[in-house]
Q: What sequence folds into this?
DNA sequence: TTAATTTAAGCAATCGATTGCAATAAAAAT
DNA sequence: ATTTTTATTGCAATCGATTGCTTAAATTAA
């Protein structure tokens, strides 16, 4: 079973007393084959159960209709959605996707990059792992002439194609909303600051406070409250302060926000009256919790499509060594019950 | 940028006045190269920024360390988890994953199969699209000598490797649990019956009723209530019956169960006292709803690992044309508030 | 009928790495 | 000192498809 020989164009050629080149031309449907022999070739190809060997074809043609994607985790909603979006577009173009997960580890990320370079993929799409520090592997990609598109978690200083969310603006929107709802002491749960997205979200938080002349209180800013558990732990600390916050912006994720909600509920705090909660990502569950959680939608599927389109429109089509574009997608604040201190009726319905 | 030439083993050979074969041997780290020249070769390889061309290597070696995966949707929790599980194992073995989504369309599924055959993948892993009818494309895979592993949604009569959940048993467990809780009229939301998994779940429902001498009431069985919306619609119909059910088993998915919950809540029915609800899949949100939803965990990540291990242990390692194994994983009933009519305190805590 | 043009098919090199076999050099055994 | 063995390295074919170039055949023009 394993070592069964597969039919090649030579088998077809031999059977028809033709040359392999004619078979190749007939199958590639291009040029210079008479209709009669083309039909003959197509028929025997079907009869012999012929399937092209893409390895050989790609080797000869010097390229691979394949795009490599590296994400921290495949089974995280956001990334799964982005991948689905990419796949949607690439499929139309007859391209394939090779998907790797770095598991949030940069050493593994480096290995993924290596594999993809070896595979001669046409393009590499990447979102960095949490422990990102060194961009040497990204440089290597470029040294090998492979187009590189970074998204979401990017190495900012590196001059490549990028598809981003405007995290700072989203963050400003969220905090401004909290302020407008009358919250006075707004805490921030922040993510690893080596990642651009978390730096930007923090910047947005600070900018919004500043604009409204709110003081910046270091004790209300909690580092590295990434997961539900860490979010819960930080919330306990925050709520046991002498002057606890009356709102928490979990800028890291909705999971973190969920941790906040659970702790608050357990401590008998009323949400949103006594504590406002805002998450990030618009995970499906934020709509379902009680109260439902205000959050930020990142348009993940459409980000994926944007990435793929960027490749096909800007990179693949032009032979020029064109300057990398940066596309920024404005996320949208989804206002739900967990932050409607003033007018709980005022829900956005869509 | 695009057409930049990459260093090959010939470049290295030329620079060192050696033959390409020696370079190949040195790099593959195997045999018959003196330590001195090996070091020399390794050094210049690094210096010239050499990366192997897997296309050429795989073409020559006649195989591709790649496993193709076809799923209905990449960004559906269950499938994303399975893929993550597969990836976890294959990564360890140095294999790559090519992932395709059929988008629940069998015509697209056929095209995915074609691409993967062309790519000479070492194995194809598939879960069928919802409109599955014809298994010709699966036969084609076998005709080309490519090992095939089906999982979850499978063509049962086809003799291939399979990794399954015991859907029937899970279903029996769920319905039995409902009966034990004192529910008397248990409705079923069923999925497309062309898919084995939904047939099995229905069979389990029927078996459990029969065992407890419950009558089977056709008006309590709703076809094709797959999504949240369809689940909601079916629920409305069920609850407006002269004798409405006092429990609904949404065997299709947790999303469907969510639709049930929302309709029940809206109609002022108390869950679990007046209506019991059980879902399927253990989606993250089922833990969060109020009340939390009883459901069935499919061990998706570990299913993925099982699939990959099956390949490495049973297929790749043995040269024999061995008989396909079927691995069945017993899912677990997760009992939560939505079905605890008798003793709401009696929650399983883990 | 002959020359010019178009069309169809074959030849052979190529993509880059691998590998069985042959050849040479070095080391060990006699 | 000579033969045998072993360790290195080179040669050349191979994997399967593609493609520029050449040749042969068929069609059209003169």
A:
């Amino acid at each position: 079973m394993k070592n069964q020989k597969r039919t090649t164009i030579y088998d077809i050629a031999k059977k028809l007393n033709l040359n392999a080149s004619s078979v190749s031309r007939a199958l590639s449907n291009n040029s210079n084959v008479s209709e009669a022999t083309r039909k003959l070739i197509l028929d025997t190809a079907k009869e012999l159960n012929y399937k092209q060997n893409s390895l050989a074809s790609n080797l000869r043609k010097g390229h691979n209709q394949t795009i490599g994607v590296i994400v921290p985790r495949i089974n995280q909603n956001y990334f799964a959605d982005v991948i689905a979006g990419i796949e949607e577009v690439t499929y139309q173009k007859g391209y394939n996707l090779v998907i790797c997960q770095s598991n949030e580890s940069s050493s593994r990320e480096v290995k993924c990059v290596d594999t993809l370079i070896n595979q001669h993929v046409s393009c590499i799409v990447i979102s960095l792992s949490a422990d990102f520090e060194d961009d040497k592997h990204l440089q290597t990609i470029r040294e090998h002439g492979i187009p590189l598109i970074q998204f979401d978690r990017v190495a900012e200083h590196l001059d490549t194609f990028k598809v981003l969310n405007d995290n700072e603006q989203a963050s400003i929107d969220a905090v401004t909303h909290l302020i407008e709802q009358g919250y006075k002491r707004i805490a921030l749960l922040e993510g690893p600051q080596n990642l651009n997205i978390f730096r930007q979200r923090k910047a947005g938080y600070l900018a919004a406070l500043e604009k409204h002349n709110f003081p910046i209180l270091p004790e209300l800013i909690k580092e590295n409250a990434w997961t539900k558990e860490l979010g819960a732990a930080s919330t306990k600390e925050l709520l046991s302060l002498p002057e606890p916050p009356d709102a928490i912006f979990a800028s890291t994720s909705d999971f973190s926000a969920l941790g906040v909600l659970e702790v608050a509920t357990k401590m008998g705090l009323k949400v949103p009256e006594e504590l406002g909660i805002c998450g990030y990502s618009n995970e499906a569950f934020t709509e379902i919790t009680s109260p439902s959680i205000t959050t930020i939608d990142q348009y993940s599927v459409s980000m994926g499509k944007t990435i793929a389109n960027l490749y096909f429109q800007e990179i693949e089509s032009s032979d020029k060594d064109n300057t990398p574009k940066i596309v920024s997608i404005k996320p949208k604040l989804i206002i739900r019950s967990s932050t409607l201190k003033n007018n709980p009726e005022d829900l956005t319905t869509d």
